[in-house]
Amino acid sequence: MIDTEVLDSGLGDADDDDFDGVVEVFDSQLPEHRYTDRELSWLAFNQRVLELAEDASLPVLERANFLAIFASNLDEFFMVRVAGLKRRIVTGLAVPTNVGTAPQDVLADISAAAHALQTRHALAWREQVRPAMAEAGIEVLHWDDLDADDRARMYDYFQAQVFPVLMPLAVDPAHPFPYISGLSLNLAVRIRNAKTGRQEFARLKVPPMLPRFVEVPSERGAARYLPLEDLISQNLGDLFPGMEILEHHSFRLTRNEDVVIEEDETENLIQALEAELLRRRFGPPIRLEVTEKMDEVTLELLISELDITEQEVYRLPGPLDLRGLFDLTRIDRPELHYAPHVPKTAPAFQPAEQNGRADLFAAIRKGDVLVHHPYESFTTSVVAFLEQAARDPHVLAIKQTLYRTSGDSPIVEALIDAAQNGKQVLALVEVKARFDEAANIVWARKLEKAGVHVVYGLVGLKTHCKLLHVIREEDGMLRSYSHIGTGNYNPKTSRLYEDFGLFTCNEQVGRDLTRLFNELSGYAIEKKFKRLLVAPLHLRKGLLRHIDHERRNAQDGKKAHIRIKVNSMVDEQIIDALYRASQAGVKVDVWVRGICSLRTDLPGVSDNITVRSILGRYLEHSRIFAFANDGDPQVYIGSADMMHRNLDRRVEALVRVVEPAQIAELTDLFDVAMADITSSWHLGGEGTWTRHAVGEDGKALVDLQDKTMAQVQRRRRSRAVR
């Protein structure tokens, strides 16, 4: 048995330099082309999302939701990943590519794959989801589908609600081409002056504050909607009186919105970040989406004025910006959604008396508590724990990391209440959390005004770990209560994201968190902890040691098995270590939601590696690392993906789970996910993913998330019976 009190973030006392030498020896024996391109792998992930939208067995409004998720995902991919690649090419920085692949060829491959996916996405809406919604009584119409009465009512709506907020911008010698904001939906309008015969161009922005799909009143009981851009385009005469409307087409621009801050060169991170957020609005164009019927004159004008290349133009059938479908998915038609699931209170946190209030501190003192969201409630565990700590007179201090949280977060309110109740409160707010920067700045300032000690982490590192630490006085002694999670402290996303959280009052975990928080609010990260693996200094090394230990066990004929669940598997050192373990005979199971640069089609290298991906009603978000260790399993959960940024440029933390029942829960979940009877995508040759949703008998395979919901419900009933 390994003594967890003296375990030094790995196995044994192997010297780091010796271990790095092992890596070099084995690397020379691995094939050169052993990684899948990460950007193309990300596009393959979004294709899996699209395949859910194309699945006719799913409720139709859920299919529409997956179409909207696909669109939102792809926007961020261009704003960050493609923009980052272009920036690196322009500035001469190294571009991460497969060996022998030129950076420009990478962009061309991405463009080709993205073009194919966007066209498929548009056709999925036009030919599959839109007709299925119509059959269910929800119609998205074209102007030509309306009768005279409908058009009259729509014109009245246009005059009353739309026309007053429209701002047509002409382009002529007195009016330069207007600034086009990123992700805005626009109409390009070409008109002819009736007096002079001169052709003009105007840009009209579709107001983002208005409903994207305007409801068309109906006496037939059907829910009918008209895209806002259709309504505007059919009434352009009111905007350009006396002009002949020659052409009008929708277009949409995506800009580079990646934020780059040289923290070493700034004296005030918040001010520098606010300035960078202003700059983000004016980032260079990265993608131009247009309708497939746009005329060449209009398109050439846009290409010229926006300084964009032909490769960056996407001609699409159907309406642009299908993120608007998020609005339609809120229609109150329960039968067109997944069956509702109400998260259950974890058995350990259920009150002893009906309608009573659970004492979470007492529950945690009885033993570690592992909570699985959203199957088990975030509100009655994490939020209740923090709220109890905020009002408990015996609690002296609360320390917490905040990466992303919701706008009306009870988490933030509880921290404010704790400070106002005289407790020492430390909040480490990561203001550099991408696309949440502005919101996090607002919350940081609100916390500071309430008396909370707010810090922003370490220079050059994002603080991504999910940590909550409470110090409580009990019988004249101080006791630590800790929570280490895999997901953000965000009550809204906790209902959609699958995550784990561990509550413990273990003294060693408490000491680890005390030191880690002191270092986060100070200047340096301690190199070694006892029950935690912490990046950037030793998480990678700790995982490599565990993987290599499994390799050595397999060579010695001992039990060896590696299970890893992550959102992304990209890091070359980790992948190479898994290849070496596979070569030694270790069974390697990888459960990945998104990017996977690891290949399964390398004879003699990846023969023992299996990779699965599961997507569904919930976003698989937890990270699990389990090592058989010859019958003494070492299992960790935490916030880190296997990416360079997580291992090298972020503060991440994994905690070791030690309770046998909880280890069994995590490994059993893994076994179900990897089983052939479970619906999932299988990674095959050349980085291709194949969906396995139906068995050879024609019956649907097991849905992991449905199965987990049922298991949690049974656990709750079992406790109630006892």
Compose a concise summary of this entry.
It catalyses: [phosphate](n) + ATP = [phosphate](n+1) + ADP. This protein is of the alpha/beta class and 722 residues long.
Structural commentary:
The chain has 722 residues and is α/β, with parallel strands linked by helices. It folds into 3 domains: 60-336, Polyphosphate kinase middle domain (polyphosphate kinase like); 355-520, Endonuclease, Chain A (2-Layer Sandwich); 532-721, Endonuclease, Chain A. It has 19 helices and 27 strands. The strands form 4 sheets. Strands 14, 18, 19, 20, 21, 23, 24, 25, 26 and 27 form a 10-stranded mixed β-sheet that branches. Helix 3 runs antiparallel to helix 4 (103-135) and helix 15 packs parallel to helix 16 (572-583). The longest helix is centred in the first third of the chain and has 33 residues, at 103-135. Residues 616-646 form the PLD phosphodiesterase domain. It is an enzyme of class 2 (transferase).
